[in-house]
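Appendix B. Worked example

We walk through a single record from start to finish. Start with the input: the chain for YeeE/YedE family protein, Neokomagataea tanensis, length 138.
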Amino acid sequence: MQSIIALICGLIFGCGLILSGMTNPANVLGFLDVVGAWKPALLFVLGGAVCVAFVAVRLQKLMKRPLFAESFQTPPRKTVDARLVIGSCIFGLGWGLVGLCPGPVIASLALGSWQVWVFLAAMLAGMSFYRLFQPSKC
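Next comes the structure step. The output line below is what the pipeline stores for this chain.
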């Protein structure tokens, strides 16, 4: 049952990414170009995501356990450290350079663009590289 729920949630998320334009690197890069031809449309996407997350966190606090799992999966660490800041900076640089990040790339696979496959290959290589040198911290 958990796998079916996860699949449904993933499909809804992917459709949302496609409908919002997050799978189009030009839209993302236009949003990030605040000193040039800024496209503020993705501000509504981000605002919607914050609203959904806000409600979900509030509901989680009221529940003893999730509907389809034994316990909530929350990050064990609550501190901001150098690894988190450096990883966030690398993620932001990559997103700003090419206008893609992992969620939209997975949703974009259905579109068949070769650029998406190149990004996916580079992303998987980066993940493998990280695991090779930080196996105990994963």
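Two observations about the output. Residues 41-62 form the longest helix (22 residues). DSSP finds six helices and no strands in the chain.
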